[in-house]
Amino acid sequence: MIYPIYTYGQPVLRKVAEPIDANYPDLKKVIDNMFDTLYHSDGIGLAAPQVGLSIRLIVIDLAPLSETKTELRDFKKVLINAEILERSGEEVKEEEGCLSLPGIQEYVPRSNKITIRYCDENFTEHIESYEDYTARVIQHEYDHIDGHMFIDHISPIRRQLIKGKLLAISKGTVKCSYKIKPVK
């Protein structure tokens, strides 16, 4: 099942998501549906709040980037109840976009190294460190489960400059190639 993507202005995108356990209803189906939605939307990462679920669940598949970044070919993960334990290294600005903010790309500063604790889809706990682009994607998706969006990291001047685009997204007047759920 393909979920609609919740766009800017939806309250669920600004809530801190709740942790889940192995008894979460139909968890495998939710994960499968999130991956289906991710692929249908041509994304590389998706957090549960982006499909209207206020739970700490993230799916990532970086394979679509493997033509230019071959090291990302096999990076496909489910992150449940993720917690970033450490951000380190230098702060790097790179351009980001988001399925919940169609048509907006901005340069966002992020740490280029992170250490994260999470459970996989079998609720096996992992503590892993990531660098560079992988760290950026995880931080971007992690923001969603903490009620933040990448535009929260840009300057007030840049936010002012995209105000019209944000208004169009929240009204549902933006066009995109995937199904969205704008604010009603």
From TrEMBL:
Major enzyme class: hydrolase
Pfam families: Pep_deformylase (PF01327)
EC number(s) from the headed UniProt entry: 3.5.1.88
Cofactor(s) recorded in Swiss-Prot or TrEMBL: Fe(2+)
Function: Removes the formyl group from the N-terminal Met of newly synthesized proteins. Requires at least a dipeptide for an efficient rate of reaction. N-terminal L-methionine is a prerequisite for activity but the enzyme has broad specificity at other positions.
Entry's family note: Belongs to the polypeptide deformylase family.
Gene encoding the protein: def
Key words, A-Z: Hydrolase, Iron, Metal-binding, Protein biosynthesis
Reactions listed under catalytic activity: N-terminal N-formyl-L-methionyl-[peptide] + H2O = N-terminal L-methionyl-[peptide] + formate
Single GO molecular function: metal ion binding
Organism: Paludibacter jiangxiensis
Name of the molecule in the record: Peptide deformylase
